[in-house]
Amino acid sequence: MDQNWNISLDGCFFENHSTKRGSKEIKINKIFDWDGQNVHIPSIYLSTKGLIVDILLETDKEKVWKFIEKFDLINDEYGSSLTKDQRDELERENPLHFSFNTTVMVNKKLIKQCSGSACTWIPNLPEEKCPSQEAKEAIDHYGMDPEKAWSVYRIRFEWATVKRPNIKDLSIMLSSDKSYFPAEHFKNPLNGDIVKITDPTNGNEYKLTVEDVEKYSLGNLHLDSNDKELPKNYTVMTYIIEPNISMEEFHLDDCIESDFVRVSPSKDMKNADEGAIKAESIGIIGGIDGPIAVLTASRSTKKTATSSIHFDTEYDVEWRAIFRKKLKSDVVFKLI
Q1: Which of 84, 57, 55 is nearest to 322 (CA)?
Q2: Cβ–Cβ under 8 Å, residues 121 and 136
Q3: Which of 58, 86, 120, 146 is deepest in the core (most CB within 10 A)?
Q4: Which distant-in-sequence residues (6+ apart) come within 8 Å of 162 by Cβ?
Q5: CA 103 distance to own-chain centroid
Q6: What is the pTM of this model?
Q7: What is the pLDDT of residues 281-313, one digit of tens each?
Q8: Which residues lie below 8 Å from residue 311, measured CB to CB, with a gap of 6+?
């Protein structure tokens, strides 16, 4: 084993493991097919606290470079110039980024992952783009071909028992997350408007009826940092879609992002009114220097969509319809 290859349950690819108690590596050396993609599981690691599984997804480098060129990611690494629809397309087509959940079955008992980390290896990536040293160490350790592209995942599971079990049977389940498929856009709808929506993946047609459109304000919200303020103006739309489809499979999103947090024109916010919205529960998420979003959970049976948030009281809302679909089937691979 490599002298510096010390895997721990509470570490990740981007930490030095040398000061942490390591785990026992057990060679698996199995390759599985996941809807046309090779999945390598070279080793698992056993510690007193839990189980670690390394999963390597193999990808042809030509496919990766075609993807990079299509979205000009050498010059625009994060796709910052892309629209939301284009970013959804980028995520769907990215051969090195695949979001999935893992569960292991140890001696017929299910254990969900407690944490995970990932890195990627792209052959011939320019040095100024900082090729992943962590991914290179992993593929070198496992003897993988460096001329191929790799997505390397390290998944961790804590034992459900006090003592480490004697593993007689081990399987791993991979369940892919849903990808976004944008459909029609419509701008500033009014109460009673009807919009025809077509699922781009299968051609199925839906009728969206706008029930209510209202503008709201969050009041004078403040942050812990007294010189920053939040945007507060946004729109809530309730609607019915027929045939009915769950919000897990379909939702509406604003085409533009929320305004960024800005320096407040008035630093005295001690008596700020936090405001409220009737019939809705409100949550604000986001960093102090980044954009923010409002999440609403409607108490009625009708579906609800919330726009981005703005400082200005007058603004347009262009909604985009989004369908959510799985690109890969759920699979179970037997390891031991």
Answers
A1: 84
A2: yes
A3: 120
A4: none
A5: 18
A6: 0.81
A7: 344 444 444 455 555 554 445 899 999 999 999
A8: 231, 232, 233, 259, 262
